[in-house]
Structure formats: structure tokens, C-alpha cells
Fold this protein.
Amino acid sequence: MPAVKSKRLLELQALAEEWARRLGMAEWTTINVLWANKKEQKEVTGCCYWHVPESLVTIKIDRAEPKKEETLVHELLHVLLEGHLSEARPYDELYERALNRASAALVRLKYDGRREE
Ligand SMILES: [Zn+2]
């Protein structure tokens, strides 16, 4: 049985679902957000897995990552751009940087828009 999720994790999951809607990712019906384990935290601030037959996305995020919303968007962009591939792209530093820039810009736009209201 899966462990009960903390309030913080449920908030991050709601945020990931909000971004998946914004990115038009309706085909991914289940977005699951979990904390990264110690080994994963050493390597990355976030990572994601997807399973097409179940329309399931799992995002793992480092608890200590200060920019959690940007990390969620970065991981969703991986799924948006690679979810149709049978295997994720091999690690590519420039591609990762491009996703970082895109996710930072999207999150900035969300909050800039609010300030103008
Ligand atoms: Zn990445």
C-alpha cells in the first residue's frame, strides 16, 4: 500500500496537475509526485518516469530544491517533449539547460500575470 502523502507533497502534486493542464497534457491522466530518495537527490534535483499504457507520470523531486515549481515544470516538459518516444532521450546538458530556461520563463509568466491583475 502506498504511504500517505504529506500536505507539502499533496500541494506539489496539485501544482503539477495545474501545470499539466496548462501545458495541454490531458492524455496523462495520473500525475504522481514523490520525494526523491537519497541516491536520486545526489544526482538530480528532480526526475520523472512515464508509463504510456496507464497514462501515468511520476515526478520525483528533491525536498531541498528551492525552486520546486520550476523543477515540476521542467519534468513535465520532459514528458511533453519525450512522452511519445519509447525511451527518454539520453542525457544532454544543453537540452537540460533549455528545459530550465523554458520552465523558469513559464513560472515567471504565471506570477507576472498575477501581479498585473
Ligand atoms: Zn531534465
Observations:
- The chain has a mean pLDDT of 91.
- Strands lie at 30-35, 46-51, 56-61.
